[in-house]
Amino acid sequence: MANPQMVMYDEEFRQINTVLEKLLRESHSKVIFLVDKNGQLISGVGDTEKFDTTSLASLTAGNIAATGGLAKLIGEKEFSILFHEGEKDNLHISIVAGRVILVVIFDSRSSLGLVRLRVKKTSDELTGIFEGLLKKAEEREKQGTSDFPFAEITDDDIDNLFS
């Protein structure tokens, strides 16, 4: 089936936040963001108020797109994990379920090894949640129902509205 539009339901959003909060605790990280590949922030946990989340989300998606281009140049599909080391803070970026980007910001209270270990487990949990969302979207599509409030509006309806 073609890639159906996915809608985030409250139940799955809570599940995602629970998984991210667990990762935050277990990896001793400062903050964690989940971003879609279009650069939209899905969720964030930890010290999120210290960040311009809109810029972080769009720059992260751009980073993934740029390194995807590099990967193709050397014959790879994509680089699924990126790591940036700074003086005080480090960034671990990974692609989850081929759809979203998990961003973990951590400092010297943690280590790259611990973050990678915990991210792997978290990625599996998040993949399960997103697979469930995809199944819901496919079922709704098969039933001919939509979660989008304007799905039934046609171009003619819009033209009539503004005529």
Write the layout of secondary structure elements.
Layout: H1 10-27, E1 31-36, E2 41-46, H2 53-73, E3 81-85, E4 90-96, E5 100-106, H3 112-143, H4 155-161
Antiparallel strand pairs: 1-2, 1-5, 3-4, 4-5
Helix pairs in contact: 1-3
For the largest sheet, list the strands in their spatial order: 2-1-5-4-3
Helix content: 40-55%
How many distinct folded domains? 1
Largest sheet: 5 strands, antiparallel
Average pLDDT level: 88
Find the count of extended strands (DSSP E, 2+ residues): 5
Low-confidence stretches: none
What is the CATH class name?
A: Alpha Beta
Structural features:
five-stranded antiparallel β-sheet; 4 helices; 163 residues; Beta-Lactamase; alpha+beta; 5 strands; globular; 19% strand
Question: How would you characterize the overall build of this protein?
Answer:
The longest helix has 32 residues, at 112-143. The protein has one domain (10-161): Dynein light chain 2a, cytoplasmic (Beta-Lactamase), CATH 3.30.450.30. Helix 1 (10-27) runs antiparallel to helix 3. It has 4 helices and 5 strands; from the N terminus they run αββαβββαα. It is α+β, with helices and mostly antiparallel strands. The mean pLDDT is 88. It has helices at 10-27, 53-73, 112-143, 155-161, and strands spanning 31-36, 41-46, 81-85, 90-96, 100-106.
